[in-house]
Amino acid sequence: MKGRPMPALRILDDRQRELIFLRPPRRIVSLVPSETQSVLALGAGDRLLGRTRYCDAPGSVPLVGGTKDVDVDAVARLRPELILANQEENSRVHLEQLAQLGLPLFVSFPKTVAEGLAHLGRLAKVLEVDARDLLRRGYAAVQEAEAALGKRGMLRAFVPIWMDPLMTVNGQTYMSDALRLGGGENVFAERQRLYPLAADLGQAVPRPAGTRDTRYPRVALDEVVKRAPRIVLLPDEPHPFSERDAEVFRAALPPGTKVVRCGGRDFSWYGAQSVEGVPRLRALIDSLR
Q1: What is the domain extent for residue 168?
Q2: Same domain flag for 186 and 276
Q3: CB of 105 within 8 A of CB of 84?
Q4: Does residue 157 lie within any of the structural domains?
Q5: pTM attached to this predicted model
Q6: What mean pLDDT value characterizes the chain?
């Protein structure tokens, strides 16, 4: 029953590190906005005792910095029983420091909407809460989106994440999968980020990337034009694209190209956000057909 000690739960995070829980954690620190939202959606908001400045949570929950500048000492002082982090959103140095302190660090790294929902289910298991209805609605939204893809053509889409330098995502990212479920075809799906910067812009010979992330290519505006997107979606995060930015794309692309500023959470927040986020993305892209 809820609240009673459970048998030891052994679970792997997305870095394949094993965590062992002898009881459902009651003291949670979230270092990721989408994780905070999922904790609240699972009805465990009363267990949240630390969050970032970017998280939507009651003002009474103490801040522990941002996603990239976590205050490790502040987190440790809260004596958390569970720290929710993300391999991509949080800086490696801070995650390593938390791990070195022996704190219960649970690192996620979903690259698709379905993986984000699976993580939500895994989190519900750790917290020992009933998420069946939430997960049912989430997977139903994904299944309906997948079915719709076979009934109508996808719109060629460009979704940048930064303006200067101009950056986007390739097909190995959560954002690209969310775009796909919404009905958008990522025009840079196969594009890898090249090193050094000059190579990414076609001005030098690429060098081996090694262990560096190649999923977020830097592109030139003329490359965007050549890819011929029918729609350009400018999310308000991680970079807050402005109307001036929108005008840059409108001036460069053919008159029939639709350039729209939109919210960014449905593109990048995983877990509970996608339950309603996927239908919203479908409605947004359908409105541009």
Answers
A1: 148-286
A2: yes
A3: no
A4: yes
A5: 0.94
A6: 95
